[in-house]
Amino acid sequence: MGDDDDSSQPAEQVANRPEPPYQALLPNLDKLSRSSFEKGTVSRRRINRALLMLALVPVVVLAVIFVPQFING
User: Fold this and answer.
1) What superkingdom does the record give (predicted)?
2) Is residue 31 within 8 Å of residue 23, measured between CB atoms?
3) What Cα–Cα distance (Å) separates residue 12 from each residue in 8, 9, 15, 19?
């Protein structure tokens, strides 16, 4: 009788549970807190670097597309 664990869910219920949105792209998004953005913290610097890299991607793509047109034009 002591072996029964009521807190565990059957495998069918776990398999049928939908994955939270954006979980595959940003698996640790739910772990961000307000303290992550406090000035001078390591996590804020990492977040700022990641945002900078994400912002540079479209700039580089646009540069690759438009710079050759200006050079040849």
Assistant:
1) Bacteria
2) no
3) 12, 8, 5, 14
Q: By three-state DSSP, how is residue 39 classified? A: coil
- Residue 16 pLDDT: 72
Burial grade of 44 (CB within 10 A; 0-12, 13-18, 19 or more): middle
Please answer whether residues 29 and 22 qualify as being in contact, where contact means their C-beta atoms are separated by less than 8 angstroms: yes
Distance CA 40, CA 4 (A): 49
| pLDDT computed for residue 20 by the predictor | 65
Closest by CA position to 39, among listed 51, 28, 47: 47
Spacing of C-alpha 17 from chain mean position: 21
